[in-house]
Every structure is written in C-alpha cells, then in structure tokens.
Amino acid sequence: SDDKKSREELLAELSYLRMENAFLKKLEALTREQPAPKKRKSSRR
C-alpha cells in the first residue's frame, strides 16, 4: 500500500515534485514578466 513506500521511493518522489514545483514557478514568473499578446496575426509558414 501507499503507507509502505520505501525511503528511496519517497525521496525520489520528493525530488521529482520539487523539480516540478520549481519549473512551474519559473514558468509563472516568465509569463508574468512578458505577458503574451492575446491576438497576433502571425501565421507561421
């Protein structure tokens, strides 16, 4: 069951979550710094 996870599993999960959290924070900071223009007529060809 979930309670019986090994210490290694928990540490791996923790480091993964920390990485994900840091990534999301960076992403949020980026989108705040430079808000993307909502409508752009640049059709990429």
Walk me through this protein's architecture.
It is a single chain. This protein is mainly alpha-helical and 45 residues long. It has one domain. It has 1 helix and no strands. The protein is elongated, with a radius of gyration of 19 Å. This is Transcriptional regulator. It comes from Phyllobacterium brassicacearum.
Concise description?
This protein is mostly helical and 45 residues long. The protein contains 1 helix and no strands.
Supply the key terms.
Transcriptional regulator, mainly alpha, 1 helix
Mind telling me the C-alpha Rg? 19 Å
> Could you state the order of secondary-structure elements as H and E?
H
- Whole-number mean pLDDT: 87
Strand content: under 5%
Structural class by sheet pairing and helices? mainly alpha
Count structural domains.
Answer: 1
How many strand elements? 0
Distance between the termini: 52 Å
Low-confidence stretches: none
What's the helical proportion of residues? 55-70%
Shape: elongated
Give the number of helices.
Answer: 1
Query: Major β-sheet, in short?
Result: none
